[in-house]
Amino acid sequence: MRLFRMFVAVLLLLYPATALAQTVWDMPTEYPQSAMPGLGITTFATRLAELSSGKLQIKPSFDAAAGIRSAGMLTAIAAGRVQAGDAFAGALEAEDPIFALPSLPFLVTSIAEARRLSELARPYLAAALQKKGQRLLYLTPWPPTGIWSKIALNTASDLSGLSIRTYDNISSEVFANIGAKAATISFADTMPKLADGSINAVLSSGDGGAGRKLWEYLPYFTAINYSLPLSVASINQAVYDGLDRGLREAVDTAASQTETELWAALSTRLQENYARMRASGVTIDSNPAPAIVMAFHDGAAAAQSAWCARSGPVCPQILDAFNAGRP
Fold first, then answer.
1. Whose CB has fewer CB within 10 Å in the chain, the N or C terminal residue?
2. Residues 89, 137: Cα–Cα separation, whole Å
3. Looking at 157-240, which runs of residues are DSSP E strands?
4. Residue 65 has pLDDT above 60, yes or no
């Protein structure tokens, strides 16, 4: 017995109690580490480790390395495959219509408007996650979405020649309305489609590492500012509830700090992305022909009306407040 106690004492000296009590959570995203969701997960991991004194650690994975796309993220978290994750909100509309709100076409026109909409939507997003047994950690903002293409888009008629990857059902409907061949494809599955030629355009901001993949195939970017969407980071509620009060506070504070840092990063993100894109040979049309933008008008209006019909009273509750805050 004496020898056993001595052995335990040595272990405690070599491996402090904080290390022995360490908890590791898997937290995947389908996007590259250098894209906004990847930046969010790495920031959250750093802040959480600091605030929990190393007791809580995040094991991140990127580029859908865990085999989980955005559309399946909530199911994976609920089933316990992973403890937390980041998912593109628009891909979750089948879970609840509220998730499609941030990517409604041409609803927001600036970072300030995107942030205001996110604050209005936050309690509704949190409630939708709660119904799935999850807790909202933070919202990840994206730079404005545009069209990556093999050819320059000079006229509205050029849009009908696109076979384009879209990121949710609404964007597929909007692009189909202008005559394009559109398909909802997760970003993780987009590159093989570009490689085999089954698509010749991508709806995306091309943020961070995402752009580095896209410009290998698509040398033109048309900045139509389709939307400034959001991704959603969440954690299994039972996992969160199993923590003591101090660690729950660490999680909440780390999440809040992460979101603040992400919005701060977004302010210069577009310029940084454009600089990398131009340096890699991408031609950026920052002022597309008015006819190209106008081509989306009817489809965008129809998409918003259809979303309102699906979302019921949530639509006027959020959009009336949003529109009332406009100058």
1. C
2. 13
3. 163-166, 181-184, 201-204, 220-222, 230-236
4. yes
The answer to whether 137 and 146 are in contact (CB under 8 A) is: no
Q: Is the Cβ–Cβ distance between 32 and 210 less than 8 Å? A: yes
Bridge-based pairing of strands 283-285 and 84-88 is unpaired
Q: Could you tell me if residue 133 is left (phi over 0), alpha (psi between -120 and 50 degrees) or otherwise beta?
A: left
* Residue type at 23 in one-letter notation: T
Helix axes 169-177 and 297-311, enclosed angle (nearest 10): 150
Q: Give the pairing of strands 23-28 and 56-61.
A: parallel
Mean pLDDT of the chain, nearest integer: 93
Contact 229, 102 (CB under 8 A): yes
Q: Which domains does the chain have, with CATH numbers?
A: 13-143+229-274 (3.40.190.170), 146-227+276-324 (3.40.190.170)
pTM: 0.92
**Contact indicator for 121, 101 with CB cutoff of 8 Å:** yes
Mean pLDDT of 41-45: 98
Among 1-10, 118-127, 134-143, 298-307, the range scoring the smallest mean pLDDT is 1-10
188-201 pLDDT per residue, tens:
999 999 999 999 99
Amino acid letter at 68? I
Scanning the structure block, which residue is given the tokens 């991991």? Answer: 45
d(CA 40, CA 58): 12
pLDDT of residue 173: 96
CA 147/CA 162 separation, integer angstroms: 10
